[in-house]
Amino acid sequence: MDSYKYIGTRARKKDGRDKITGRAIYCQDLVLPRMLHGKILYSLYPHAKILSIDTSKARKVPGVRTILTGNDIPHVPIGFIGDNVPLKKGKVRSTSDEVAAVAAETKEAAEEALDLIEVEYEELPMVMEADEALEQGAPLVHEDRKSNRIDEIARVFRTGDLEAGFADSHIVLEQTFNLQYVSHVCMGASFAAAAFDATGRLTVWSNTQVPFILQKDLSKALGISGREIKIVQPTIGGGFGKALDMYPHEVIAVLLAKESRRPVSIAFDREEELAAAPKRQPARIVLKQGVTREGKLLARKVDILLNAGAYVSWGPLSSWTMVQTFGSFYKVPNIDFKATPVYTNGPVCSAMRGYGNPQA
């Protein structure tokens, strides 16, 4: 082993000393010159029309520099299929929907301003369960669609002769598994800060897990060349799949910075993280399996209903991993796999720890 430089030797973790001594700079430690503190107002209802938003009282709070609503910004489509926007206009589809945003000199001033923003809603019928969302006459989460089914990311895989496999099986078992929402609860909550320099170049600090994908997504959403966007990734207090996508708070930080002409940071507290950050999506898995007398799998029929929430993020795409788990961990010659993602008025769902493998 003496001929090897690293194999068989003790490797010192490069960031270990900074972390154990407290020198590591996490997102929440970030302080920029003239930085404003951003806060987001979320919807009171899971499904409602926005009739009016009055920010006049909030603008009078000392220290408030900028307030934005969906009416103040251009249409900025975000999300895996472009079905989300940073600030909602006309309608909210979830209690985690962003209705307005404030940038102020202090967190306290921003929070006071949020309390003074008056929003008038007209409640709409809501649907929270995926099976109910597919029923005839169910409320449409996105009114421009014919159904709550998200066919763009549905997954179907078939191989072999399923019926023959069941016919040759000694035992056929069918079970239904219901999986619920799970919050990541990373030690480091969601964060984004944004600043423009004198030449118009944008710098974004984020606890993203994929800085180059975030750069690409921001470029596409904002119409800014990727060359003009720099992503800084401070030390991350946990990601686990949650931080693979770009979320509204990151774009909102940029929009507030552009409007105020000052750096703006948005740091979730724990309550906000639990309420508004993306979750592992619920799923109903109906699994029918046929086995020989010796216990060999002959056939598997898998029918998965995925609750995607109000907008498509990475979560429902985990079915693309599930099909591999169901079909390859054990040799199964006959498989019928179907995964149907469905819109509901629930929270956005992200990738999380194993990305479909634990569920499958």
Give the secondary structure arrangement, pairings included.
Elements: H1 16-21, E1 36-42, E2 48-54, H2 56-59, E3 64-69, E4 91-92, E5 98-104, H3 107-116, E6 118-123, H4 130-133, E7 155-159, H5 162-167, E8 171-179, E9 182-183, E10 191-196, E11 202-206, H6 211-222, E12 229-232, H7 248-260, E13 264-267, H8 270-276, E14 279-280, E15 283-291, E16 297-309, H9 319-328, E17 334-343
Parallel strand pairs: 1-13, 11-12, 16-17
Antiparallel strand pairs: 1-5, 2-4, 2-6, 3-5, 7-17, 8-15, 9-14, 10-11, 10-13, 15-16
Plain-language structure description:
With 360 residues, the protein is of the alpha+beta class. Helix content is 20%, strand content 29%. The strands form four sheets. A seven-stranded mixed beta sheet has the order 3-5-1-13-10-11-12, sandwiched between helices. Strands 7-17-16-15-8 form a five-stranded mixed beta sheet. The longest helix is centred in the last third of the chain and has 13 residues, at 248-260. It starts with 15 loop residues before the first helix and ends in a 17-residue tail after the last strand.
